[in-house]
TrEMBL record:
One GO biological process term: L-valine transmembrane transport
Key words, A-Z: Cell membrane, Membrane, Transmembrane, Transmembrane helix, Transport
GO cellular component, one term: plasma membrane
Protein family (similarity comment): Belongs to the AzlC family.
Source organism per UniProt: Orenia metallireducens
A Pfam family reported for this protein in Swiss-Prot or TrEMBL: AzlC
Residue ranges crossing the lipid bilayer per the database entry: 20-45, 57-79, 142-164, 170-189, 196-215, 221-242
Protein name: 4-azaleucine resistance probable transporter AzlC
Compartment(s): Cell membrane
Membrane topology, as annotated: Multi-pass membrane protein
Native organism taxonomy: Bacteria, Bacillati, Bacillota, Clostridia, Halanaerobiales
Keyword Transmembrane set for record: yes
Amino acid sequence: MNNNENTGVLKKNMVIKNSSLLVGLKAGIPIAIGYIPIAIAFGLVAKSNNIPNHISIAMSLIVFAGASQFIAVNLLSLATGYPEIIMTTFIINLRHFLMTAALSQKLKKCLSKKYLLLLSFGVTDETFAMASLQEKKLAGDFILGLNLIAYLAWTGGTAIGVFLGAGLPTIIQSSMGIALYVMFIGLLVPNLKKSNSLLTVTFIAITISSTLYYLPFFKALSTGWMIIITTILASIIGAILFPEDGGNDE
């Protein structure tokens, strides 16, 4: 292969990578829009609990896990010990092991371990849902774009909440807490219309979660463990009911 051919291949690869990144960024726009009010709400909660501004922003930059951050702030305000905070957030975030393991099966196999580590940091419930609903094998740059726009929205929203959010009307501040649920429903419902298997697994997950929540026998379980158990059981039942062959890399 001569130099001209090598240059042509490199340019083609760069175009593909840039295209995948842009597609990921565009796909993540609804997630980013949903994250901003929730991140602002987090900034407001942290501010109201007298958490230093730089600590609140650092949490979003380093932890990047909405539910864990809200819980950590509440525990800090109650003067809870650090080991308990770490254990609580660890249990809540155990589901990320499952999500990244499942997502790795949809990625093309030519990615380095360092790149996979970078991608795993940015996986959230919403980016996982968006990525897992794609029908073909995914380029790493698509996941990078998807995660990046969500990350920027979350950290930027936190900064807005910390520095500017205190001036928002009370009614707007109180309404931001439900934004996460609204966004997730908005991502899920359109895809339920296209997939009977997804609809079935969703109802299975709802049934398991409701059983764990309402039956007195399971009252001792924390929210984190309920999420983990629901995810594992729903995934196992879904895999048994709707087995699918992994496709070839595209």
